[in-house]
Amino acid sequence: MKWLYHLKIKGLQLVFFGFLICNICCKSETKKEKRKVIETARVESLPYFGDITFTPKWLTPGSEEEKNFHKIPPFNLTNQLGEEVTLDTFNDKLMVVDFFFTSCPGICLKMTANMTLIQDEFKNDSEVSILSHSVTPTIDSVSVLQDYAKKYDVINNKWHLVTGNKQEIYTLGREHYFVENDLGELKSVDDFLHTENFLLIDKNKHIRGIYNGLNRASIAQLIIDIKALKKEVI
Predict the structure, then answer these.
(1) Of the chain's two ends, which shows fewer C-beta atoms within 10 Å, N or C?
(2) Tell me: the pLDDT tens digits for 175-227?
(3) Are 200 and 226 in contact (CB under 8 A)?
(4) What PANTHER family does UniProt report for this protein, alphabetically (predicted)?
(5) What are the start-end ranges of the E strands in the chain?
(6) Residues 6+ away with beta carbon under 8 Å from 86
(7) What is the pTM of this model?
(8) At the fourth CATH level, which superfamily is domain 64-230?
(9) CA–CA dist 205, 74 (Å, integer)
């Protein structure tokens, strides 16, 4: 009868392992479904942002409210090729925007690495451009930006590294992109502008998203949001 006992034990073991495998597979499928929900959770409508609090507002594209909502104003800067870069450079394009400086020993290197992920994801997509403003424009000349672009495999005319008038760049950053989080603290051009934020700008030059440029999960969400924004009917 020992053989019958061992047979029962083997049978129970097979049932247990079958249940375990099924449970693991089910959990795996559940996780996939959850990831799918997360990846598509924001595709229907991205909010608009119009002030330093980054309070989201859901507007109807093409409506009067949307047309009169905060937009990035005209600017005139110079990129790593020595070419003039204006708001018109980004006509009919989505923009991913940040602020950096080439001599930064800390967060800028991680930001540049993460921005490269954006560039690589959309390198063949003419609708998506990247704009990185130097916050030390008197140091970051065209030639310095050229060297930086070569070092980090920046694709010219896809990713613009720009220098120019410091007052203009700082005003853009603080008063129009709202990249610093120091609410209520007045700052001048003499106060250094330093931020890890990336911003997503739509074709009408509205701010549609803010992301932590040091965080891979935030970068992944940015990529998802760019794809969602491309489908938006304006």
Answers:
(1) N
(2) 999 997 655 566 655 565 878 999 999 999 999 999 999 999 999 999 999 99
(3) yes
(4) ELECTRON TRANSPORT PROTIN SCO1/SENC FAMILY MEMBER, LINALOOL DEHYDRATASE_ISOMERASE DOMAIN-CONTAINING PROTEIN
(5) 76-78, 84-86, 94-100, 128-134, 159-162, 197-201, 207-212
(6) 74, 75, 76, 77
(7) 0.80
(8) Glutaredoxin (3.40.30.10)
(9) 10
